[in-house]
Amino acid sequence: MTQQEFTARYSYNPKSDQLGSGGFGSVYKAYDNEEDCFVALKIAAVDLQHPELRLRNEVAKAEHLKHKNVARYDACYTFPTLSGEMDIAVMRYYEHGSLDSFMRRGDLTLDERYDILTQILEGIAYLHSHGIIHRDLKPQNVLIVHHADKYIPKITDFGISKQLEDGESSLVSNSVLGGTRSYASPEQLCERTLRKNTDLWSFGVIAYNMLLGELPFTTGTFSASSDEGRSEQLRQVLSGKLPEGINHISEPWQSVIRGCLVVDGEKRLQHAEDCLGIINREETPEVDVEVEPIEDEKTVIGDSAQEADEKTKTDDENISVVSQQEDNEDKPKQKKNRWWVLLLGLLLIGGGAWFIFGDNKGENTESEALPEENVENEALSEENVENEALPETSAPYRIGDLYNENGKQGVVFEVSVGGSHGKIVSLNETKLQWCTDERYKSEIVLGLTDENNGKVNTDKVMKRRDSYQYPAFVQCRNKGADWYLPAIEELKAIYNNQSAINSTLAKHGGTELRVVYWSSTEYYGIPEFCAWFVSMGSGDAYDGSKYSNYYVRAVSAF
Known about the structure:
Shape: elongated
Number of strands: 20
């Protein structure tokens, strides 16, 4: 069809017939003079720098999809204009508009909402079965049609969807940050590798919004476009906790939403069929779906590996004791009693020794540090003092104390040698890239493998001629020769003590810890050109693209 033929066939007024607009184009209501009906025209400029995002590609992805809950395009044309080429896609006009506008009108009963959500899940299951991850599911991208006294949702807008080829892994790169932030999954917000169930997180937000009329994760009192607003929303997402409103949603939908809104993609419900199974009570998928009131709910991310190991060890010890008792049931009571007496004696002796000589290096912020004379002979470990002669301090420190000596000021987050030495975190922070776009595009890996000592990593960077290309490191070193960007485990130690640290920061005019912080430790995997950052909401580490802007906090030993 020529441009003249197109103009003759489709009539619309750009000023009065616009139905909506977004990052990937504008949609207009038009009249098809040939078919004598209304259609919708989606018009998008051709971006030569991002050809993968062309509207024509979106139409091609949907061309072979045939499902009642997936919208299709009738045709797509490309025409030149004064400002460049334009792709124009033609599709059916849905008079009820998007699910977003339909919900705001309040025309849906609760049962109709349940039915629409179930159909959306069926549409997602169909897309995933054809290797398509949508990546931008939201009410604005679901159109509504009314047929036979029933509302039918149609998933649309595949502009940033990912088509998996035959044999390709279900894990895909997140090279383009897809998804509206309110509905985007943690892995999208943190620019991590995606899997199919990233769409299930978005579905969980949609379901929560449809059933309660509000979003589970907000920007608080901040503007949605501000850094503070985005940081607050990310903090809520990564906290692993859902608002109390979740308890007002009836089953089985409460379980479905809880299973979808799990931060860890591996623990989240994996397939749309899992959600449908819960709804139909046909199966109970193996997933950690909490249904207790939120005030009793632990972080959805789950226990740390250490906690899990300790729990397993305790369970094994309990089983061992029970087995030992059962094996001894047939033995003479006198011998059995002597065994318990001996065990009790050993426990008393060990407990007394621990009480007198027990180690106290500051892990427990409630207890007093050992007097320095009790640790005179303790060798300073290389990990704690980095093989350097540290200046003397005036008094033993505890975690959470303000350190203000030897020209340095910070809050103590780690102590050793009876509190005479340790590590401090800076009072203030900034938001920077790990490295510049130029260095990221050059695909440079620096070999920063240390997970416990960020000074080792920072020293390596600062010895490079191009060190100025690594803003996060430069910012920390500018505070002094012994300040550095913390390693991943140092950030986790800060997370473990953030309550005491924030209390001191608040008292002394510092900036309280928040959201996510860059570590100096590189991430090795796919993609290779990432570094670890740590969430202050969960204590978990994530791999992020080095050009991203995250918060930076400097650390120093004392």
